Amino acid sequence: MRKSVTALFAILTCLALATSIFIAPSPAFGVQTPSDTYKPKFPGDPARSGSEAAALAYMRVVIRAQRQFNKQYNHFATSLAELVHSGSFTKRMVNPDRGDYTVSFEGKKDSFTLTMTPKQLDATHRSFYAEDDGKIHADEEKPADAKSPAIK
After folding, report:
1. In this predicted model, what pLDDT tens digit does every residue of 1-21 receive, in sequence order?
2. Contact status, residue 33 vs residue 51, Cβ threshold 8 Å
3. What is the arrangement of strands in the sheet containing 101-108, beginning at the earlier edge strand?
4. For the chain, which residues make up each domain, given as ranges?
5. 3-class DSSP state for residue 109?
6. Higher pLDDT, 9 or 105
7. Which residue in 126, 83, 74 sits closest to 105, CA to CA?
8. How large is the greatest C-alpha to C-alpha distance in the chain, in angstroms?
9. Could you tell me if 123 and 35 are in contact, meaning their C-beta atoms sit under 8 angstroms apart?
């Protein structure tokens, strides 16, 4: 009888330990914010999340394509579709749905504006704005515009 009580106690102890392992929150599965996990893509990367990095990369491609287009045709493209094959701008990039962001583009022959608006505005999903001067502006409280702080 004494052996069976000891064996039962050992089994219950093992079950209790096993249960505590599965019930206790693991640090690896804890809640982490994107800013805690984002690793900068290059020195001086102004992005705060992977989504921001993708949005900023898209903006840089459009700005470079517009500069190349302007150099070649002596005016800016008036639509994103017109930029296809200019620089590294591809047909797929004409789609304004860019994951967590939506693109807005207004082109004139002498200027253009480009905005990236997040589907959810927060500290890791800021809105971005650029125009023909090539400077990118960001705002985490409202849609970015020319008055928003420029990113570095």
Report:
1. 555 545 545 554 544 544 444
2. no
3. 97-98, 101-108, 111-118, 127-131, 136-139
4. 45-139
5. coil
6. 105
7. 83
8. 97
9. yes
